Amino acid sequence: MKKKIFAWTILIILIICGVAGATLQYSYSTGQRSGKLVKLSKKGFLPKTYEGTLDLGSGDSLTWQFSVHDEKLGEKLTNLSGQNVTLEYRELLWKIFYDTKYDITGYKIIEDSGQSNKSLCRLVQVLRQDKSIVEQIRPMIQQFDPSLLSSIRKCQN
C-alpha cells in the first residue's frame, strides 16, 4: 500500500513538473522589433540572463525591454550596443525567472547605407592610388560580385 502511494506521488510530481516546464517555455507569439540597442546587462540569481533595452524612437515611452536566455547570443549582442538592430523574439506566457516575457532568438544589424557608401568610396579612392591593385581586384569583383562594380563606378563620378 505504501509503495502505491509513493509511486502515485512521484508520478503526480513528475507530471506537474513536466507541465510547468512546458508552460514556462511555450511561445505565445513571435515577431521582430527594430531600433537602437541602448542597454544590455547580465542579471539573475540562478538562471543568469541578459536583460536589455531597445530604443524604438525617441523618448522613454518608445523603449522596449527584453531578455536574452541564450548565453552565446547575449555575448554577441553585448558587442552591438549603440547600433541599430532588428531583434527576433518569442513571447513567453509567464516571466517567472526573467525580467520580461520577451526572449530574443536572433538578430540582424541594420546597415546605414549612406555611411557604408561613403566608406566604400573612401576605400576606392585609396585603392586607385596603385593601378596594380586595381588590376588584381577588378577580375575578382567581376567574378564574385558584379553588382559591386556599379557601386564602385558611382564613387568615381
Oligomeric grouping of the chains: single chain
**CATH homologous superfamily (4th level) name of the largest domain:** Nucleic acid-binding proteins
> What is the 3D shape?
elongated
For the sheet with most strands, the description reads: 5 strands, antiparallel
Percent strand equals 25-35%
Distance between the termini: 91 Å
The CATH architecture of the largest domain comes to Beta Barrel
- The CATH topology of the largest domain is what? OB fold (Dihydrolipoamide Acetyltransferase, E2P)
Encode the helix/strand succession as letters.
Answer: HEEEHEEHHH
How helix-rich are the residues, as a percent range? 40-55%
Structural class: alpha+beta
Describe the SSE topology.
Layout: H1 2-25, E1 27-43, E2 49-55, E3 63-68, H2 71-78, E4 84-92, E5 102-109, H3 113-127, H4 131-144, H5 147-156
Antiparallel strand pairs: 1-2, 1-4, 2-3, 4-5
Describe the structure.
- This protein has 157 residues and is α+β, with helices and mostly antiparallel strands.
- It folds into two domains: 27-109, Nucleic acid-binding proteins (OB fold (Dihydrolipoamide Acetyltransferase, E2P)), CATH 2.40.50; 113-156.
- Helices cover 45% and strands 30% of the residues.
- The protein contains five helices and five strands; from the N terminus they run αβββαββααα.
- It has helices at residues 2-25, 71-78, 113-127, 131-144, 147-156; strands spanning 27-43, 49-55, 63-68, 84-92, 102-109.
- Strands 3-2-1-4-5 form a five-stranded antiparallel β-sheet.
- Strand 2 and strand 3 form a beta hairpin.
- Helix 3 (113-127) crosses helix 5 (147-156).
- The N and C termini lie far apart (91 Å).
